[in-house]
Each structure stands twice: as C-alpha cells, then as structure tokens.
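This follows on from our talk about sequence and fold. Go ahead and set the record down below:
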Amino acid sequence: MDQFPSALFQDIKVLVVRGGTRSSMFPFIRRFCNLDSFKLCDFNFKYTVPCKGDAGTLSPIRNLELENAINLNHIWRKDSELDHILSNLRPLTVRGCDDLINIRASSSSLQNLTTLNVSFCDMMTNLVTPSVIKNLVQLTTMRVKYCTEMTEIVGNEGDYHQTIVVSKLKCLELINLQSLTSFCPGNYTFNFPCLEELIVEQCPRLKIFSEGVLSTPQLQRVKQSRYCEKWSWTSDLNTTIRQRYTEK
C-alpha cells in the first residue's frame, strides 16, 4: 500500500474488509481518513475500536457492520480514548460474532445510534446494561435475532431505583431467542413513550417483559410474526406476555 499516494484514499466513503488480524488491518485502515461506512468480516481480534496508535486520523463513521468475528469479546475497550470514532454511528449491525459478550459502550460513544441489529451471537447472555440503554437517546429500532444463549436484553446492574427512559424507540423485534426469559430481570422502571411495534417470535421461554413498573402508552398489540398480521393484546404488555406464555 505504500506505493499509493495518501490522497488516493481520502475520498473513499465505503470500505469492506474481509479477513485479517489487528497487526495487519489497522495500519491499512487508518489511511481511509474520511470513511462513512465500514464493514468488517471474518476477522480475528478481541476489540474492534483500535488502540490509539492504530487509529491514525480516522474520522467518526456513520455505519458499522461486524460479521463472523473470531475471539471478539467487546466492540471497544473500556478504557479507550477513541470513542469519538463511533460517536456519529447511526446503524450498528453485529452478526455471527460468537464470542461477543455484550454491546458495552461509554456514555458518549453511541449517543447518536438509531438502529441496532444483533443476530447469531451465540455467547451473548444479555445485550446491554441499564446504563448503556439509557444513553441510546436516538435509538428508534432494535432487532435481536437467533442468539441462542441470550436470557435477557438488558442485564441487571442492581440499582433498582433507576428509571430508564428509552425515549425514541419505535420498533423492537425479538426473534428466535430460545433462552430469553425477560426483556430485563431487574426491578427497574421502564418507560417507552414511542414504542409502537413489538414483534415477539419464537421466544418460547419469555415469561414477562419487565419485573418493574412498565409504561408503553403507544403500544396496542404484540405481533407474533414478521410475516403475518397475527397479534395479541391483553390490557398491558406484561399481562400479554404472561398470557402468551401460559397458553403454550
């Protein structure tokens, strides 16, 4: 790559990289200083956000896709100084990352995220913590599919005095989560003021949505499939989920 002038890479907005290790990949990627969309496939390292020395002049990206990772435990490091790389992220898609533990983020790194798609991540037992979901202030769509070990979407941090407002979420899809027992097992207060569409499909162990106080003023039904209009509703969301579970 050294034989090419650096100016050649400055206008490239979309980059797809397949395969590689951290030592070979990031010195290459940092040449693309104006990326808008980045897809990373079939790679092998523990963190996606690079170390400070690897980042070069990378600017914040808007679209990130991670697919078929080996050994990826976290998308970025807890102590990373490079959260700005993801600060403008809108859609985040994670697929087939079997070793990924959860979507861990700092208070500012995902503040502009609008769409979160996670599927086929077999080691995940929960998706996010309460502190992370509270900071997803622009999130409108969340889709979680085919994660065989996931028992809850929001994990338990123990501070049950929190009120968690997911202010812009309109669409939530929970599909083929065979171990899912609840959206959140903790006794938190959840408020979803804009939630209009909820799809719960092939989640046979789902007994309750949330243990604490729950507000979903715009939600009037729970769809049972993406592909048909079959739905159910009984007074409120928790009652509806309980009834569906007892009827199986």
Observations:
- The longest helix spans residues 237-246.
- Residues 114-248 form one domain.
- The mean pLDDT is 85.
- The first strand starts at residue 14 and ends at 18.
